[in-house]
Amino acid sequence: MITVDKALNMIVDNASPLSAKTMATEHAHTFVSVNDIVADRPLPPFNRVAMDGYAVRSTDFSSPEIELKLKGQIQTGIQSELVVEPGEAVNVMTGAPCPAGADAVVKVENSKVSGDVVTLHEDNIRPGLNIASMGEDKSRGDLLIQAGKPLSAADIAVAASVGLAEIEVYQKPRIKIISTGTEIVHPSVTPLDHQIRDCNSYSLRTMCRPYRLENEFLGIGEDDKDVLSALIQKGLDSEILLLSGGVSMGDYDHIPKLLSENGVKKIFHKIKVKPGKPVWFGKTDKETFVFGLPGNPVSVQSCFRIFVEPLIKKLSGYKQAQHAFLKLPLSQDAKSKTPREHYMPGKIKVTDSGTAVEPVQIRGSGDFSNFAESQGLFLMPGSKRVLEKGELVDFLPWSDTW
Question: 121 has which bridge partners?
Fold first, then answer.
């Protein structure tokens, strides 16, 4: 068996980003930009008024309250040649360019207008008051979004703001899914005493959705070599094939041998981890990656998060494909009986004293009803059997939300 770290390194080292495509920026959310995105002009592109008020010369304020001649008005989005001379003020709107000659804006709440005279009161007048200076955020050519980062809603806005109506992004992997086992039936079927309803394909498809991945469920493969082989062949017409069940050492665990017979070369089988010890990983000469995942629902969901998602990220062009853990204290003691690394379910607990991880108690890899209470997994190192209350742990939320 190999360690979790070695398995993760073997997964990402065997993969490369998929080819690029150009798409409308408005549809590029969660895709990864191939190129750095830089400012095509200073940001802000002019001295921008930060609030409605009056543009003035700060040197005119010999006292907190003065009277100035009202020269005119500048609306947002309207070019103006107005120049503020000594003793003058110009009415300006939020987002408008600050007129030449002015170096401060007094907010409209501190004003009173009578004819062509405005009385202004400002106790803290200074150059730059209520003005966003040209280029104070970024200069032309400055990096705004680094290549290899999945595009957030804010990134889409930034890309549009620098004139990118289209953007070059990496393509995303297509995923195909097979549930295996003669005991598995569709959820619409009333199961016999020895049967269980398929839930793994539902969790796997659901976990693909935050990445906006095209995915297809190929069906339930009974423990028959011909049936499973036919499904595997269909599944290899994708970038990633996920199988749940059939990867252990039982007489009917046919998956490893059938994968080999269908041209999938094993990279590793079995990891020193709980849950997920039987995980099988390999790829074909045509760069289809295959995971044979355990059949227990807790194991399937945990292994997707721990092992499959880094591959998805690598193929999708993420610069950082490995996990970014949160460091959080435990709210209570946690115990493990295994010498393997143990990814244990936990949920966030927020109290007046801070944020912590609270262990979620489950009875094993089949206890997915209690497992559903979890918000992520925290790591119990293989060298420990107990983590005490207050100890910092590596916490992996069910989705990357930061």
Answer: 65
Backbone angles phi, psi at 13, to 5 degrees: -70, -20
Write out the two tokens for 149.
């980062």
Cβ neighbours of 26 (radius 10 Å) = 12
Give the chain's count of helices (H) and strands (E).
Answer: 8, 28
Task: Supply φ then ψ for residue 271, to 5 degrees.
Answer: -130, 145
- pLDDT exceeds 60 at position 400: yes
Taking the C-alpha atoms of residue 289 and residue 15, their distance in angstroms, rounded to an integer, is 9
pLDDT at 284 over 70: yes
**123-152 b/e (C-beta count within 10 Å ≥ 16 → b):** eebeeebbbbebbeebeeeeebbeebbbbe
Computed from CA positions of residues 223, 227, 233, 237, in that sequence, does the dihedral angle turn out positive or negative?
A: negative
Question: What is the maximum alpha-carbon separation in the chain?
Answer: 95
Q: 286 and 312 in contact (C-beta within 8 Å)?
A: no
Rg, the chain, Cα only: 30
Specify the pTM. Answer: 0.90
pLDDT at 330 over 80: yes
- Joined together, the tokens standing for residue 76 give 């947002």
Domains in the chain, ordered, with CATH?
4-18+172-315 (3.40.980.10), 20-43+137-170 (3.90.105.10), 48-132 (2.170.190.11), 326-397 (2.40.340.10)
Residue 29's identity, in one-letter code, is: H
